[in-house]
Write a structure and sequence with these properties.
Blueprint lengths: L1 E3 L4 E2 L3 E7 L7 E8 L2 E9 L2 H6 L10 E7 L3 E11 L4 E11 L2 E7 L4 E3 L1 E11 L4 E8 L2 E4 L1 E4 L2 H6 L10 E8 L2 E11 L4 E13 L3 H30 L9 H15 L22 H8 L4 H13 L7 E7 L4 H12 L6 E7 L5 H13 L3 E5 L5 H10 L6 E4 L10 H11 L5 E3 L2 E4 L5 E5 L6 H6 L7 E4 L1
Parallel strand pairs: 2-8, 10-17, 18-19, 18-21, 19-20
Antiparallel strand pairs: 1-3, 3-6, 4-5, 4-7, 5-6, 7-8, 9-11, 11-15, 12-13, 12-16, 14-15, 16-17, 21-25, 22-25, 23-24
Length: 474
Amino acid sequence: SLEKPTTWQVCDSNVLIVGWAFHKKREITAVRARIEDKSFSAVYGIERSDIALGNSNIPAAHKSGFTIELTAPPGRHEVLLEAQDARGKWHLLAAYPLLVSTIQASLDVPTVWEQRQGQILFAGWCCHHDQKISKLSFLCGDTSVECAYGLRRKDVGEVFPDWVNSSESGFEVLVDLPPGEWHVSLEAELENGETLYFQAPKILTVRRYDIWQRSADKFEEFSSFIEAIRQRARERKQRLGRIVPMPWEIVKVIRQLGKIYRQQKQFTAPGDLLPPAGFVVPKPIDRYDAWLEVNPWNDRARNYLISRLQSCREPLPKISVVMPVYNPPIDFLKSAIASVINQVYPNWELCIADDCSTEFTVAENLKDWAQKDDRIRITFRTENGNISAATNSAAALATGDIILFLDNDDELTPDALGEVALYFAAHPDTDFLYSDDDKIDTKGRRFAPQFKPEWSPELLLSYMYLCHLCAVKR
C-alpha cells in the first residue's frame, strides 16, 4: 500500500514514494520503481509497527516499510512498482499513471463532477514558474476549446507571488459535452514554444438531460415559485396584518410577482445556457435573513462587548428592567426572563409585577425564577389594573439609574443591556433611549426588522415607533 504521493499529478520532477509491502508466504528482499528503462531502488525494511499490529501473525509485516526517490522529466509516464523475491525474480506490485508538469493549475468550477448534458462552464487558474502562458486550451476527449485566459486572480498571486502573471492566471471556458465519462485536462502553450499539460484529478460524468428530467425541473421551478409567493404572503401578513392588497398596491404586487418568477426561473429549455456546472441557482433570501447569517451573535462579539465594558472610563449605570405580567404563555415568559438573565452586562435587576394573573402556573414560575437569581424582584398585585398600572407597580420596585421596559413576551439580545449602559455612560445628558427591533417566532426565527430613525415627530404621529426597546433615566 502507498501513503505518498497522494496524487500522481505533480509539478516537481522529484517524486517521493512512501508505503509498505509484504507477502504472506514469500520473502521480499527488495522493492524498486521503474519508469521506462530507468530503475529507482527503495530503502526497504523500515520498521512499521502500525502494520504489524494488524498483521501480528505475519513476521514480515514488522519491517515492511519502504521509501523510493525517483526523478521523471515533464510529461506522462507509467510508474511500475516491483518487488524482488528470495530467488532474485522481480514481480509487479502495481502500475501508476504519473503526470509531471511544471505548471500549477486548479479547476475551481465545476465543484460537482456530475453534470447534466449541455453547455458546462469550467473555470480556474493556471500559471508557470518562469514562463508566460501564451495560450491555454481545454481538452476533453477529442474536444479542444481555447480558454479565455488572463483573468484577474489576486488570490493566486498572493500564494505564488514569484510565478509569471500568477495574479492574472484565471481562465473560463464554456464546453458543450455529450453524455458520458470524460477525462479533462488543460494544454498550456508557453512563450518559449513548450507545451505542458495539467490533468484534472477527477473524471467528469455528464448525464443525459431527457424530457422527463426537463419536466421534473419545470415542476420544481413552479413549486419554488409558489413557495416563494407563500413566503412573501406570510411576511406581508406579519408586517401589515393583511394579505389582500389595497387597490393602489395592485400594480406594485404584480411587479413583485414578476420579479419573484424571474428569480426562481432556471434555464432548462433546449439551447438555453445552463447555470455554471456545480452552481445551483439560489433561492431568493430575505435581506434580513442574509444579514443575520453573516452577523451572528458569537464568542467574538461577546468578548468585544466585554472589552468595551471593561475599558469604559465613565461610570456604568444600573439598569432596572421593568416587566408587567398577565397570563402570558409560560414558554414566552420563560424566554423573556431568560433573555435578561443571559445578558453580558451584569449590573441589572428585573422588576416584575404580576397583574393578578388567573393562571396559577404564572405565579409558580415567577417564584421559581426569583429563587434562582436574587436580581429578580417580584410583586403580586391583588387586583387587575391592566398594563399601565402593572408597569407602575413594577417600576416602584426599581432601584437602578435607568428604567428599561420589557413586555412579558419580548426577548432581549444578549448584548442589549450592555449597549444601553455604554450609550448612557458616553452620553450622560440622554434622558430617553430607544433601539431598533424585530419579531421572533416560536421556532426562534427572527423577521420583520424595524430600523428606526432618530427623533422623528412626523413618524410618531403615524404610530408608536419608540417602544421595544426603550429606556429612560430616572
